[in-house]
Every structure is written in structure tokens, then in C-alpha cells.
């Protein structure tokens, strides 16, 4: 049976490349884990193509978000996960007005077809299908202060997890297919001018590696995440404005952890930090997050109701 | 049970992915790909007598007589067309489809791309000063040009005016030499585009390639390879499509180049090179405004950037005299100390604080800022879509684009004259709590450039296509309003800017009624 009865998922940054579910942990059947995460991300340097620079007209660009999230165990092997972030952006210098509002709904089905324990080692394999769609009519063509990129996405991630004693590693890779977006202009420049309000968004590949300590009570891990835009994107030209279909690549290093209270095993705390080591047409951001999750056993509640 | 879950999971995952992959079809239809082949309702065969801008007479530059169509040399030229057509490639078909919409139209589009590519302000030096683009050293950092709105307005105007004069000369020589088109001489020759009844020597597309390439070399020197590539396509299109023999095209290129030289000579002495000013002038603008008791404009860029082209108001217009520029100058803006000013500032602050989604859309739609074809480019795009519906001849296309772009160049001259005569501050300079929804342009507020360009464009376009006058007016008003909604202009800037534009546009309208084309 599942080793981590009360485990809640760990959360990586939700802004831009939300990956809320890529850990080797499943919710047990009929358990519903719900919680909220606050995240603060900021940068004062960014990559214009491959050139790292600052922009005094932006100062520090920050993104605060609160994400509401849930994970329901349809079965021990199949989880349904959602997240809805509220996002606020701001530039500390210059005149540009920040934005705020609800960003994109993300829905994920996480399936574990295989779990095998040999001696002290447990191997498991997962498949995750995700779908995201904007929940509000925010403009994407307002970078770097837009709430997001607006693109509906579908992604398929394959993941393998290995645990020996209290130590584990998880490796996963996903292909993210992105739908065209519409912007508020009817012409825009990539290499030449396109006379349409539709923008072809390049797809992306995301690779994630995490390893560390994992027990019923505590998870502590380091995370390496690499987001690589596929063909079709382009660089920000010298001193130009960014555009939603720019090539946006980011290699991130980070740490994250989760603590489950002994007295209240339904309740857990999560927190983490990550930063962009190397990027292209993205901010060199530092991200902090922390949140609270609570697990409800829906079956038990039902039984109590019946009494 | 277990199998069911497994099945459900697999199916759902797969369905999700496939459904989205399917709905994420990347095919995008671009408006300008839909333009149909030029097939004029009126060939304007008397256009050789229309009034030119710089040419003293349509035959100011001589053109050799062509070889006769009954010579073996001409037959060999027809054979060249046939040999291309036998093995026509998909790419050649694409070239024909693209260029058959019209040379004036396609060159105008190419130019919009060039403007957008180069519409980027220089990045600062280490010490916080800014390097200036240099025409003498165009590949240095920053590249030449910085095609900001005044630069772009002038560039569009020179190319359009030169194309127009070149088309007048073309129509003159077509009539003079009256050489039949290849498909008239050889009835068996296939023609892949609508047939024109006009004589084919010289080729209007050859002339357009010749005149435009030379001007674009001057205006966008780092893009010559790209420009040459387009010109090669245009030449090939005429020959492969069977519309012209090679000697039609070659003669056209020679004629076009000669005409370009006259416009290039004028461009080098029209005052644009000096429009950037110098530190003495920049300081003087500030002190002379402060001396009147008004708040002088300050750059809001960090680090502070010298004002954009402060002497552009002195650039030589095609139809306005310097006296006309001064006479058209708007009344002074409300004093920064007046109640009226406070009221207007408060209005802009309210737009900044509570932007509706619709307002944001309007701001972005008309922003035409960094990395775009500028407001004059936007109006060229609007005009092009309207003109395609009208089935104009190539010469009338050139005439209408010239009138539009000369009106907008005059808008740039008159607007920049007012901006630097009054040198008044932007709303967020007066109240730093005002946040903007688009970038703050680096020049004084009064009057709004977008409004002046739009007023001028609306005036001349409404004259050319009266049926769309209401729609042009609504667009001009919205473009003007967008600058208030974006919190970068006061109401006075926008309203007086529209009026100035209309005034300037009326000079182009006056010329339109007397150039022989109506």
C-alpha cells in the first residue's frame, strides 16, 4: 500500500511555468488535500537574448501570487489536481502600471501505473496529463508585467521515482503543447510583421530532477528544473520590448520542504526557494514560497454524516 | 476494478492531450496574405500628365526606346518567359501570388517591417549618456536608423513620393513607346496574373524596384541584402508571370534608379540630419521654458535621455512652407499652474487608476510604440486594406499612398514644431503617482503625435475613400483617446492634436484636388 498516507504534494513556482505536481507522491483514495501557497518572485536583471542586463526603467520586477490548490485521490493510483493562482505584478521604477488578477486554471491527472518494492527500495512510474487555461481576460501582450502568457496548454509528463530508506530521487520530463493566443493588436513583429491578432506560441520541454530526504513527517529536497522553449520562438532584440512568443528558457536550482505536524497529521506546511541560474529572455528571478495544506478524508466524513 | 481505473486513466490522459493538440492547431491566416491580384477597374492611362512632386517633367530622365516586338531579340525574351513557366516551382508560384497584389502595396508592407525592426531607442553607455545612431557608420551600436515616428513618417513619405513620381514617368513612357505586352505579341503565351491593357515598356514593377531599393538603401542601410532579395523576387515575378519581358523590367529599374537619385539628393538636405540637436539646444529648450514660468519637460527615461529630434519641426516638407508650419501651430496648452491643467491632470489620473479592460485594449491596439511600425505605419496598414478593395491601378496606388504619407510627414513636422515650441511636461512628470499603461514617449506632450498623425491620415483618406470617412474618423478618435487612456497625454494634447492633423491633412487634400487625378 501507499507509504505516505497523508502526503500532500510539494509545489514548485506557479508563475509562468506552473509545475505543481511533479513529485513521486500520491494522495490515497478519497482523500482530498486542499491548501494555499503564497509566492514572491522578483528580478532586477534579465536576459535580452543571451545578454544579461538590467533596466533602470523597471527597477525590480516582482510577482506576488496566492495559489489555491487541491488534490483528490480518485484511487490510490489516480489523483486529480487543480490550482488557481491570483497574481499581482509590479515594477519598482519607471512609469509602467502593474497588473493584478486571476491567472490560469491548471488541471492535472496523475496516474501511477507501477509501484514495486524490492527489499528497501521502492520504484514507481507516473504519467501526468495537464491542461491549463486562462480564467480571466488578462492581456498577455504586456510583458514583463502581464499576469501570464494566456496560452492554453496541454502537457504530458512521464516521471520515475526511486526511494531507498528515507532517501529518494525523482526524474521527469514533459512536452508542453501551447495553443495560439490572441493579443490586443492586429499586427506584430517577429522577424517580419504579421497581420493578425493571433500569435503562434512555441511549445516547450520541461525537465525536472529532485532528490533528498523523504519520510512521513518531513520532506527536504533540492530541485533542478529546466524549461526549454522549442522552435518558433525568437529573441528580444537589443533594447526592444519582450513579446509572448519569445524563446523563454530557464534553468532553476532550488530547495523545498514539507513538514507534517505530529499532533495534527492532516496539516502540513510547505516552503521553498529557487532561483534562475541561466536563462534566455526571462528575468533572473529569485522565488520564495510558503503554504499550508490540510487533508480531508471524504469517505470518513460521509460515514460520520450517516451516523 | 483495477483495470477500469487503469483504462480510465490512460484514456483520459490521452484524450486530454490529443484534444488540446488538436485545438492547438498553429495555422494562422494573415490579412495581407488574402489580398487579391491587382486588376484595376481603371488603368489611368493618362496618368503621365498628373502633377509630380520633384520631377520637373515626366521625361526629365530619358529612357531609351525599346526593341520592336517583331524582332528576334523580342522573341528570345518571350522564350525566356516560357522556359521559366515550363518548370515553375512552388516558391515561384508563391512569389507571383505575393507580388501580384501590387508593387506599391508590397513595398509599403516591406517598409513597415523595416521601420518596426529599427524602431528601438539606443541603449545607454556605461556612463549614463546615450550613443546616437550614425548614417555614416550604420552598423555600429546603435544601428542606424532609430526609426521613431518622425523618422518613419519621413521615410514613408520619401518612398511614396518617389514611387509616385516614378509611376508618372512610367505611364508617360508607356504611352510614348507603346510597346505591346508579351502576351499580346504571342497569343500562346500563358499569363499567370490578370492581363493589363497598358503598354508594358517600361515595367511598373521594374521601376518600383529600382526607385524603392535606392531609397531604402539610404533609409535602412543595414538591410540592403534583405531589400535586394525582395527586389529580385519582384523582377522574377513579372517575367515568370508573363506580364513583362526582361527588357521591360531592366529599363524600369534604370529609370527608377535615376528618379531615386533626385529624392536622395533632397533627403540629404532636408534638415533631418540636424534634427537631433545638441546639448546646447537641449539645455536652451529647458531654460527658455522655465523663463516663461512654466514647468519645462523632463525626460522620464532612466537614465534621462535627450529629447527626440527637437528640430524635426524644421524639416523641409513636400507641400508646406515653413511659414505654413508656424501659421498652423496650435494655441498654447493650458498653463501648468491653471485650474484647467489641474482638471486635465486629474482626468488622466483617473484613467490610470481605474483602467477598464476595454480601455487597456484600446491603449495596446493603438500604442504603436517601440518595435512596431509606428502610428504612420498603422495608418499605412489601414489605408492599404481600404485601397485593396478599390482595385486601383499601380499609379493611383502610388498617388494615394504619397498623399497619405506626405500628409503624415507634415503632421510629424507640425506636431514636433508644437512640441518643442511649448516643451510642456507629461502627466506623470507633474504627478509621479500616475502610472501608465504604455511606455511614455521621450518628448514633450503638447500636442499628441498619435492624434496629429491620425487627424492628418483621416482627412486625406476620407477624401480618397469618402464612403469610409465615418470609419476613419472613429479610428482617429480612438487612436487619439488611447493616449489619454494610457495616461501619457492630457485631453488638450489629444483634441488639439487631432485638429492640427486635420489642418495639415487639408493641405494634402487641396493638392489631391489639383494633381490631375480626380
TrEMBL record, chain A:
<feature type="signal peptide">
    <location>
        <begin position="1"/>
        <end position="18"/>
    </location>
</feature>
<protein>
    <recommendedName>
        <fullName>Transporter</fullName>
    </recommendedName>
</protein>
<keyword id="KW-0732">Signal</keyword>
TrEMBL record, chain B:
<dbReference type="InterPro" id="IPR000326">
    <property type="entry name" value="PAP2/HPO"/>
</dbReference>
<dbReference type="InterPro" id="IPR036938">
    <property type="entry name" value="PAP2/HPO_sf"/>
</dbReference>
<feature type="signal peptide">
    <location>
        <begin position="1"/>
        <end position="25"/>
    </location>
</feature>
<feature type="domain" description="Phosphatidic acid phosphatase type 2/haloperoxidase">
    <location>
        <begin position="408"/>
        <end position="504"/>
    </location>
</feature>
<dbReference type="InterPro" id="IPR016119">
    <property type="entry name" value="Br/Cl_peroxidase_C"/>
</dbReference>
<dbReference type="Pfam" id="PF01569">
    <property type="entry name" value="PAP2"/>
</dbReference>
<protein>
    <submittedName>
        <fullName>Phosphatase PAP2 family protein</fullName>
    </submittedName>
</protein>
<keyword id="KW-0732">Signal</keyword>
<dbReference type="GO" id="GO:0004601">
    <property type="term" value="F:peroxidase activity"/>
</dbReference>
<dbReference type="InterPro" id="IPR052559">
    <property type="entry name" value="V-haloperoxidase"/>
</dbReference>
